[in-house]
Amino acid sequence: MLMPTQRGTRNAMTIDVEDYFQVSAFAPYIKRSDWDSRECRVERNVQRILALLAKEGKQATFFTLGWVAERYPQLVRDIVAGGHELASHGYGHQRASDLTREEFADDVGRAKQLLEDIGGQAVLGYRAPSFSIGTGNLWAFDVLLEQGYRYSSSVYPVKHDHYGMPDAPRFAYPVREGLLEIPPTTLRLAGRNLPSSGGGYFRLLPYALSRWMVGRVNQAEQQSAIFYFHPWEIDAGQPRVEGIDAKTRFRHYVNIERMEGRIAQLLRDFDWGRMDEIFLGRRAQALATLAAAAR
């Protein structure tokens, strides 16, 4: 039975702005040097998402690759003009766990500066590609703080073959003084954390179950949910990548043609907003924007 919506709790809707050929699971099949020769569809797909959010009167956080911002600066300006939060997904969609401390600092610093220069607002948030901050690279939080970030959404407290830190806290917590980690939402059942925050799980599971999980986090735990998806997940017409293994093919393409309708329903069923306003407050965001403009 469906749980009624929890209108008193505002949840965070987040979009990881990257294109289909930049997905980490495709890295063995698509060379980074070939990205510029691929058909890029991220611009049209983000515009569809912006139109959907405007129609439903909702705001969101867009974790945007510097690589995308550099090539589509007007898209960044359109995100900001729509009243949404502009946040960082790093520059080149490299897993934080694959980088040295110096390489990571260069990646997140470059992306932040680029996004702020184009968007004209402070970039306070960061999400690591493939949720790639874990026990082996907790130094990444020190780097984020040094680079001026105020929060991260990079630790997924689940067990997964590509990422995850199942023993990490399930809800927002300070990882350094002045830096919050805000993990994607999980539901605790039978001693395990179950993914409840979007991506392939949202496409695979029945919508009613995903809706129930978000509602349970809101009602039973009195917590805001963090939901995420990618622009390519609403794009059933994207070029198919040849030669990929069966698991990767299933994960990437399952129910992709239903995703946009499910997102629209989710926007109607719950209250949604920006990460910075929910977890940092409007005043903190405004002060950071003024500080960035004064640099």
Task: Report on the architecture of this protein.
This protein is of the alpha/beta class and 295 residues long. The chain has eleven helices and eleven strands. The protein has helices at 42-56, 66-71, 73-81, 101-119, 139-146, 199-204, 207-220, 246-253, 259-269, 275-279, 282-294; strands at residues 10-17, 61-64, 85-88, 125-126, 151-152, 173-176, 179-181, 186-189, 192-195, 226-229, 271-273. The strands form three sheets. Strands 1, 2, 3, 10 and 11 form a five-stranded parallel β-sheet that branches. The chain has a four-stranded mixed β-sheet with strand order 4-5-7-6, covered by helices on one side. Strand 8 and strand 9 (192-195) form a beta hairpin. Helix 4 (101-119) packs parallel to helix 5. It is globular. Mean pLDDT is 91; it is low at 1-6.
Point out poorly predicted stretches: 1-6
The backbone outline, from C-alpha atoms, is: globular
**Considering DSSP H and I runs of 4 or more, what fraction of the residues is helical?**
25-40%
Order of helices and strands: EHEHHEHEHEEEEEHHEHHEHH
Tell me how many strands there are: 11
How much of the residues is beta strand, in percent? 5-15%
- What composes the largest sheet? 5 strands, parallel
Helix/strand structural class:
alpha/beta
Mean pLDDT score, rounded?
91
Tally of alpha and pi helices: 11
What value does the Rg take, in angstroms?
18 Å
Keywords:
5-stranded parallel sheet, single chain, disordered N terminus, 4-stranded mixed sheet, alpha/beta, 295 residues
